[in-house]
Specification:
membrane; transmembrane; 2 domains; cell membrane; mainly alpha
Length: 234
């Protein structure tokens, strides 16, 4: 597979996610303006961060008059998954130059990671150059639509009827990304614990139950994996 072929394939493999990215980014543009951000602030946040979940988290906390440090801490906790994504991609893309890896880190989103990792694992024979090209192909459509959707939502969001309920895109997006990655018992246990803990801790102020639930789920999943390894050795 040549680099050009890998790039085109990456774009085609991630093209269906446009159906999620567009309403998701539109919704962020609308919510950002409703939260008091002007057009420049909304676009700056979207372009600099490119992480819808953490952006929505920060906005929700700021709207609830939470301290700025709490909003930043919660957004950071939500985005810690990107560190795990990076670690998972190192065996496949760690050979790239520093500048290229920095650009990859900036462009990384859930969709690109999920699609790229599944492809790399299914086709270990891909050349290092083809892997890099494939990754950028995954992002070539997502980022422009994310920027454009945010701009459109910020400009015309008030004209979108409330009954359209664009917020459906948030849970649908994460269900579509997460479900195929639940491949083992520790994964399933972590997913179940995170859901139950998030519901049980919903009473906490400033949505702090979400990062706490994520931490509890990660610890539970890791302990489940360790228990299974002990049983295999025994």
């Amino acid at each position: 597979m040549t680099e050009a072929q890998a790039f085109r394939r990456g774009a085609l493999d991630c093209a269906p996610f446009i159906l999620i990215v567009v309403p998701f980014s539109l919704l962020f543009g609308v919510v950002a303006r409703d939260a008091g951000l002007d057009l420049l602030q909304a676009m700056a946040m979207s372009v600099l961060v490119i992480a819808g979940a953490s952006q929505f988290t920060a906005l929700a906390l700021l709207e609830d008059h939470a301290p700025v440090f709490v909003a930043l801490l919660a957004a950071l906790a939500v985005n810690l998954r990107m560190a795990m994504y990076s670690a998972a991609l190192v065996p496949h893309l760690g050979h790239a130059r520093l500048g290229v890896r920095a650009l990859m880190a900036y462009l990384m989103v859930d969709q690109a990671f999920a699609v790229a990792v599944r492809t790399y694992e299914a086709e270990p024979a891909m050349t290092p150059a083809a892997r890099v090209a494939y990754y950028f192909g995954c992002m070539v459509l997502i980022c422009p639509f994310w920027y454009g959707g945010t701009l459109t939502g910020a400009l015309v969001g008030q004209a979108i009827p409330a009954e359209f309920s664009l917020d459906f895109a948030v849970p649908v997006c994460f269900i579509a990304l997460t479900a195929p990655l639940i491949r083992s018992l520790p994964h399933a246990v972590a997913a179940l614990v995170s859901a139950l803990a998030a519901l049980a801790l919903a009473w906490l102020p400033w949505s702090l139950g979400l990062p706490v639930a994520a931490l509890v789920a990660m610890i539970t999943g890791a302990q489940t994996e360790r228990l299974l390894q002990r049983r295999r050795r025994a």
